[in-house]
Design brief:
single chain, 116 residues, mainly beta, SH3 type barrels, 1 helix, 42% strand, globular
Amino acid sequence: MDLIKEVQNEFTTTQEHPEFAAGDTVAVSYKIREGEKERIQQFTGTVLQRRGNGATETFTVRKMSGNIGVERIFPVQSPFIDEVKVLKKGAVRRARIFYFRERTGKSARIKEKRRF
C-alpha cells in the first residue's frame, strides 16, 4: 500500500491552492483544449464537498445556470486547474452539504463567515 502512495506522490505535480472547505464560494479557472487552441474558463459556485487525500483528492462545485443546477468534480492536483480563488467563506456545520441541492430561494443561501 505504501508503494502505491510513493509512486503516486512521485508522478503528481503539487499545486498550491488556498484553504477552502464545504460551503465556500470559489472561482475555479481551468484550462480547456479545443483542437490546437487552449483557453481558460471559470467555474464559479459553492463547494459541496472535499473528499480523498493526496493525489486522489477531489472537490465538487455546484452552480446555478439559469434554473438548472450544474455540478462539476475537480481533482485538486489536476494540471488543468490554473487557479482557485476563494470568493466567500461559508458558515456551514457539515463537511458535505448535499442538502443544498434541494434548496431554492432564500433557503439556498449560506451565511458568510466573518473574519476579524
